[in-house]
What we know:
The chain is mostly beta strands. Helix content is 8%, strand content 54%. The protein has one domain (4-273). It has a 15-stranded antiparallel sheet that branches. β12 and β13 form a beta hairpin. The protein starts with a helix and ends with a strand.
Amino acid sequence: MKKYIYILxxxxxxxxxxSQTVHPCEIKNNAFIPGEKLTYVIxxxxxxxxxxxxxxxxEASDDTIFNQKVLNLEGTGVTFPFYNWVFQVRDVYQSWVxxxxxxxxxxxxxxxxGGYLIDIKYTYDYDNMIAYSEVEKxxxxxxxxxxxxxxxxxxxxxVIYQARNIDFSKYKKNEKIPFKILLDNEIHExxxxxxxxxxxxxxxxxxxxxxxxTGSLVAGDVxxxxxxLSIWVSDDENRIPVxxxxxxxxxxxxxxxxxxxxxxxxxESLIKKY
Length: 274
């Protein structure tokens, strides 16, 4: 429960596998505009008991950083009041990206999980293919570092929005689609696998035509690793995630869409509204 926004960011992220017709860096944004807001409920299953433990919101807005016009992509997560006494979470993840190609310019992770604070900043220098990092955590000394990056290197937030612009018609069923992200001062390579199209019911919202894909996960203190993640995105030009499922070390986690506004395109994938 304590890392559910971190988990949601990880499991939405599609990331390396095989060659592809169009490199992700070359994709232009057609999926969203400033003003879009997507809201999710996080549900956790432990010993066959499902419970809604918190919420996550993603927002896109115009901004300026380093005298450069950018898009600010922000993901925030909180535990519901009933669970605050167990483990209160207040997480904010932000990525400032180039509006043309959605490559990150600056990234900030500001996390408070039960009083444990994490503050991580990345500044991307594509001329020198380096990211400058600043890391500060409770009970640990502040430190600075540099990380070698690649031409198409994203963070946990920017890769979500970049992935929404994938043209799945260019891929065959079961084909892998690669990305790279900078996470915890390391470059990680994982992938999603295109699985085709399905109709998906989302409680409280409606029935959607969706595109389904699975993905690999990095083994660690949250995931076991393997290709156990499943994601359904709206089968229209918005490509918004409507449902996500993944096992974790202890239990299973799901994220379901409960609200949306400011979409760039009509939500044509919505077959029936509940």
